[in-house]
Amino acid sequence: MDDLKSLLVSGRGSALLGMRCVVAGASSGIGRATAIHLAREGASLLLHARKNRAGLDETLDLVRTAGAGQGSYETVLADLAESDRCLDLVETAWRWGGPIDAWIHLAGADVLTGEARGWSFERKLQTLWQTDVVGTLTTTREVGRRMSADRRGRRAQVVAADDANRPLPTIVTVGWDQTAHGMAGDAGEMFGAIKGAVTAFSLSLARSLAPHVRVVNVAPGWIRTAWGTTADPYWERRAREESLLGRWGSVDDVAGTIAFLVGPAAGFLTGQVVPINGGFRHPFDPAG
How confident is the model at residue 244, as a pLDDT? Predict the structure, then answer.
């Protein structure tokens, strides 16, 4: 932990200084890495988790080290499988720091590790549908509505030059790179349907909210999260061989891309799916 903290201060910048960002699903993995990257660039953060208070508190500690006082940081727990809690989370965010500059929606159900790994296909699918699809749609639609209203209201007022030139508010959702071509097996059928729905929704949301709010969908490939650390030799080989760069992606690969996407340098990007996969190679042949 101390070694990790010593690395957090390296490369600190100010590209996001003054921005108010929400990271939904920040207690571990890609969400934690994203929070650290945003804090290091100066953002203030509201960090969300479903129920993992210990993990969220650990993320908060790392974020405080990474940000070194550049921003303010708060945490909140909410189960986004429940629509009322989705709306409560949005209300909490606006009370905390509205108007919000960036909403990074990485919250999703884990059905690949722990007890859920042994669930039936049907139970996994229902869990993913409620959290990853319905939860994402319910939350980000309300976020987009508020962001759009805030932006239109701000433009109608006489504002300071630095405020008028702020980047458009941005929503980032998460898909999957293999929805574009499919993957054989239960996992492919399940995640293809779930992440395909989120991706299609995100592209439509971008059009609904233009030109006041940007929406970008990131599509990670083989990223070494908690599941990847225990992958058997088949998946190890597949992860390497399906990337032109010949390796697993890291959570920092995804987090760094997200930090770029919510910043001013990506101001002309919206309605896009951004693969983060090291360059996808032709689908792996299980019989090969």
Answer: 94
